[in-house]
Amino acid sequence: MIRIAFAGWFMVALSRLVVAFNNLDTPEVALADIDSFSSIWNTALGLFGVHLLLIAYLSIRSGFMPKVFGILIGLAGIGYIADLIGLVVAPAFTPTFGLFGFVGETAMIFWLLIGGRRLPRS
Questions:
Q1: pLDDT at position 61, please?
Q2: Which residues contact 29 (CB under 8 A, 6 or more apart)?
Q3: Cα 115 from Cα 25, distance rounded (Å)
Q4: Which of 26, 30, 35, 46 has the greatest number of C-beta atoms within 10 Å?
Q5: 26 by DSSP, 3-state: which?
Q6: Segment-wise mean pLDDT, segments of 10 residues, the chain, 122 residues
Q7: 69 with 108: CB under 8 angstroms?
């Protein structure tokens, strides 16, 4: 359910870019739409962080996946949530913690493509 929520939120953010593109003849309005996009996008990334924490919990509990991938995904989720909290607390904050999430996300992708294929089918 959380996955649907953040996907919908990302779509709302992208719609703000379409509106901004249509308002390019009035730069002030377009800039306000782009700022709105940024705020909505960062909120959606926070929801994505919650999703990653749930995935991390499930992967650690599963037993068939190495726990290191669950830990890395959990750290990525914490990074996205920390960026959102940083933006709420200090609007001038530059999101940086989520940038390191690609390590865990990429490692899990490759494990699923390579190691996950060798799991016994039931």
A1: 93
A2: 23
A3: 52
A4: 46
A5: coil
A6: 83 92 91 91 89 93 88 94 92 85 87 77 64
A7: yes
